[in-house]
Here is the input.
Amino acid sequence: MAAAKKGRRSSGSQGYPGRALAVILIALVALTGGIFLSGDRTPRLGIDLAGGVSITLQAKPNQGGAVTKANMNTAVSIISNRVNGLGVSEAEVQTEGSKNIIVNIPKGTNADQAEKQVGTTAQLFFRQVLAADMGVPAATPKPTPSGSATPSGTPSTTPSGTATPKSSATPSGTPSASSTAQGRAVTGALTSGVNKAPTPLPTTPPAADPGTSAGSSTSSSDVSVPADLQAKFAALDCSNDAARHAITEGAKPTQKVIACGKEGGVWEKFVLGPSLIDGKRISGASAAFDTQQGNGWVVNLNFDSKGASQFTKVTGDLSSAADPNNRFAIDLDGNVQSAPVVHQALTGGSAQISGSFKQGDAEDLANVLKYGSLPLAFDTIDRTTVSAALGGEQLHGGLIAGAVGLALVVLYMFAYYRGLSLVAIASLLVSAGLTYTIMCLLGRAIGFALNLPAVAGAIVAIGITADSFIVFFERIRDGLREGRSLQPAVAVGWPRARRTILVSDFVSFLAAAVLYVVTVGKVRGFAFTLGLTTLLDVAVVFLFTMPLMTILARRKFFAQGHKWSGLDPKSLGVKAPLRRVRRTHSSETKEA
Amino acid sequence: MSKLGTLGHRLHRGEVSYDFVGKRKLWYGVSILITVAAIVGLAVNGLKLGIEFSGGAVFTTHTSSVSVSEAQDRIAGDTAGHHATIQKLGNGGLRIQVSDIDTTTSKQVQQKISEDLKIPTSKIDAEIVGPSWGKEISKKALQGLIIFLVLVVIYLAIAFEWRMAAAALVALLHDITITTGVYAIVGFEVTPGTVIGLLTILGYSLYDTVVVFDGLKEATRGITKQNQKTYSELANRSLNGTLVRSINTTVVALLPVAALLFIGGGLLGAGVLNDIALALFVGLTAGAYSSIFIATPIVADLKEREPQMRALHKRVLAKRASDAQKAKEAEARGEDPDAAADADPQDDDEATASAAAGVIAPRAQGGASRTQPGSRGRGGRNRPSGKRR
Here is the structure.
């Protein structure tokens, strides 16, 4: 039939139904294998379904800003972004009383990591280094602990980060790497990341000599170190946790402070000037793996326009200062993350923090920086498990009801579509299998947690998914009513059904995409689920239902319209033998 | 087999049809009535905001042997009509959160809880908690919604046409208003769950409308090249053609929700699930209803105002009049009606006439017009001619 050929040409997968089926079945098997390998055999459940850990934070009154309602609310929204940036982890954050914040995290989340994330104040300042020394005074005679191929053999304090001229990223690694004790990473590179073209360094002096920077204490007129700080600085032992913790207490951005930093496993201590640029000027942060310079995991920062101009000016000023005052410390909550040397003004509006991060650390830091610093400092005062908000019996009842509902759907489909319902039910099962396994795997990958609204969404998704099959089946049956035999009916019905499915699923996907991009929190989680189920719907119809139907259309049982096939011409109102249809009618205005 | 199956083929062949478009005024009226009721309910009852939006009080007991569901039962009447969320803490205590109450009410509630749980008041800490669903989330959700609606209208205007976009939007607002009204009337709390339920409904409503419109678009392709049917008739025909799909999809979508609502909520007492299930049930029903009874008739209404469609309308009427004339003459000559049938679009005439009835002069019984005299009078109505025009 002409019409049949036309239909076949326009649907690519129809020629090879077996291949498409194989693709989706392999995907299903692979995903199933994935959940067994990863051990996540059930999706992570939200706090309303599974309970979790509740962390209570208390604002420290004497640090940071005042404990006001506005500051508390800001802190809540920042913390909630930190623990639920993707919107899929179902964490809840709320204030309690006037100075507490409760963070509820669903079961299965790493509570320690979460606690660290929510509690980190993340106040970031860029300060000038006034003085630097090895962090552990007693360790002076000892050569560098990392003991790798360092030419000088000096106890490297590794101040050798180079600030390169705005263009170059790659070459900056070369000189500095050679001068560091650590073979694997340039320990503090401040790179303007806008233009990555590997041009040679025009004026870069040799990277700071570790010996000089370690030995020299300070100088220059405007960078004097007050006597009391000098004394504290001399006494400071960075390897001592308590001492390190003590110096971060009460540190004010407007004052000179002492601080510790660990780069490449070696402690270095600093006297730092007042804050030159506030971390609030950071407009974005992301973790990246630096392959070009071998810095390992780094955190890239972008400044807003004001921050960018400040940064240009400050780096310009610093580049002309004497060592170590030409160094720039990135001070996060009182700890120096890195302290690179600046050689000339950096104009790109972006900076990079490097410093032997592990992937997780870099991601956490980027996450924390991205959502800004907390206006208040917090202590964790309580951490306890909480049970599900939805009683176990309720959930149980819900599950039974859901099962009954599904059984009814199967019955209804069978009653109406007979043999065809097997195709629909198999498709629903494949769809459910894919959704389930993907949700399980996403639990670990991005912290996806299934909560009650998501379950409700999944139930509605049954309807939308089944609709795709129903549209398709009705098209096929229309084809039969128009007098075609089954195979051509499938071939002609499919392009029509396909268009309907794509057009309507596009609307769902649009909703999901827009809501995901624009919103935060639980709405984002919903958008994610919606988008996922919509994509799976399309995948299942294209790769499973249609090929299966094409194959089954060749079977006698269906092709000859067996009474139980759901395609019985009699019950469709077609009287066999089928009457010829005029070709012109194949494109007729008819509806499924 | 099933009656619906037979109905399917009869609908397909236009033997049975319901005049959705013709009787649109009736359904507009019904919808307006329901919508007004929903708005009144909303105005009178207002929406009860859950703890996630309004904050509330949290009561913490240090130790308790009472289980969560037991506690739920015992304090059911204590919370001044507000919803209580109860969680068991790691140390054996209970955390009871009650939405939307202030300090004074909180004291009374604390008192009552202490009596019902038989724990001295001093062993229950009470604190006021802030909303966990901040203004920011609501604001961004609304922002996202507006951006989405603008985009979807643009998309529908391009993929279909602006009239369909407008009609889809009306249907959407209709569904959302009704569902929100039900929230208010039944009086359940607006939690993030219900907001998400609402978004789900929004998605479904649009989805369903688009599926119906897709059929409509196909049915009305090349409409100006013929003079047998008006836009409204074709629209009605397409609705009837998609009716089986609409019914099946709605049934399949509603069955699990209904099970959740009636079995889960009614028999097994899954309280919180009830809220969501009811919202979804109402929303899905409204979504399916509005696609057929509201959205498509609005498109037809708007289309019929186009000059092209008006001209078509006139042509159709003229053609019909002459056909009727011919038929009479043929009858008078005693010709075999079957012979005439193959040459002319007789099968369709039935549906056409019935649908036309709705447009030309709204008649109470669109479907019955098949038996109308004048244009009828020929036999062989159920002939499996297999052709439509």
Summary: Residues 185 and 237 of chain A are 24 Å apart (CA to CA). Chain A touches chain B through 102 residues (CB under 8 Å).
